Amino acid sequence: MSDVAPSLAGWMARQRWYASKGHTPKIRVIGSFESEVDDALVMTLLVIDEGAPVPVLYQVPVVARTSPLPGGDAAFIGSADGHYLYDGPHDPAYARQLLRSMAERAHVEGSDVTVDGHSLLDPGRVRRSRVLTGEQSNTSIIYDVVDGSTEHVIAKVFRVLHHGENPDVTTQAALTEGGSTRVPRSFGSLTATWTDPGRDDGVALGHLAFSQEFLPGLDDAWRVALQAATAGQDFTKEAYDLGVATAEVHATLAENLPVVDAGPDEIEGALVSMRRRIATASREVPEIAEHADAIRAVYDLVADRPWPRLQRIHGDLHLGQALSSPVQGWVLLDFEGEPLRPMPERSRPDLPLRDVAGMLRSFDYVAGSLEHDTPRTSSRPIDAHGWAHDARRAFVDGYIASSGVDIRADRALLDAFEIDKAVYEAIYESRNRPTWVGIPVAAVARLVARSAPGAGAAATQADAGA
Length: 466
Hints:
The chain is an alpha+beta fold. The protein has helices at about 10-15, 90-105, 165-175, 220-230, 235-255, 265-285, 285-290, 290-305, 345, 350-375, 385-405, 410-430, 440-450, 455-460; strands at about 25-35, 40-50, 55-65, 75-80, 85, 105-110, 115-120, 125-130, 140-145, 150-160, 185-195, 205-215, 320-325, 330. It folds into two domains: about 5-20 and about 25-215, no CATH class; about 220-460, Aminoglycoside phosphotransferase (APH), C-terminal lobe (Aminoglycoside 3'-phosphotransferase, Chain: A, domain 2, Alpha-Beta Complex), CATH 3.90.1200.10. The longest helix is centred in the last third of the chain and has 22 residues, at about 350-375. The relative contact order is 0.09.
């Protein structure tokens, strides 16, 4: 059929995943591939939007039908050549074809794009599909399946495309292949190469989608922890087990993906990024600027010390990234890494301490959230910081017990990564929730007090929770 692009621009601007809010899309299709599924034409378009200051490449799956899709009004895009156009993930024809392409390891030569499916496990036969609501940057399809090893599968469709492998795909695939039970099992993925004149070789490679086991009805660790803290319940066993789960994931990743020594270049590269964040925070958050020199002193202190070996990690670990499963215990999710980092950087080997620091900050946020939301006139005393202290300590104890690595041995290095995470949080809060900025600022003050050169034993003992 003829070009469908004229029907897309206005529709794209209204979607949650459209990255250039406030701009009028100026789009063109740079690649496409298609197939006939039953009585529908399934097309996947690679659409570049040049209407924003920085061009953005989108994946736009479209299903063209000669008659309306029953119940498809919310997914209707427009019309072209007498066909009704629907957003692919909401159409069962696209949903089935996507999962089939991965499972059957399909190879498709499209127009200026080549697509390959990759399969680890058979997901089973699709009975029905639906789209998960509320997502911002991707679109996830939930499948009810039979004749497989699970009852539910989730396929994540990446709307914004980047050159480089997506660590959410490659990390979880490595964990599945390594036999880990601490993540949902990966079933397969879809990759593509497309023309990119901005690259030296003129070609880009990236992930279009991947599928994995879906675990419905489970509470995430943030909800479980916040409920426990609110009720004044001990959380140390759960925190200890979460530390064990984190260490197990790190161990499996180290066995199945590259591990490299932390040489001077790697150390300096990490510290350059951390110092850059300090500069940004000092401009935007006056309370952080007051501690900037002390923070830099901590970074200088660890710059000359040996660092552990670098490996693939989660990259953005916090309590919201873990589910409580009655069968598997804690299960970790969403290995895409820090959202603001470029895609190639997210797959680089890093220190496992970054994940540990992220989880420690998350326990601190439970306490901060509780204090923030509890009226000062409340007659019920809540020792939120005592609760967080105990949970942090138990988490580290569990991590050490499982990994065999005493991460408290070089406390300044762990503190440096936790300070960096708190600085990142301070920037975020100042931009989005200014009344919450005190949570990360208090953490920075506490951490530099015990980690800066010359800090005495009393300062260290005062916060020995982690």
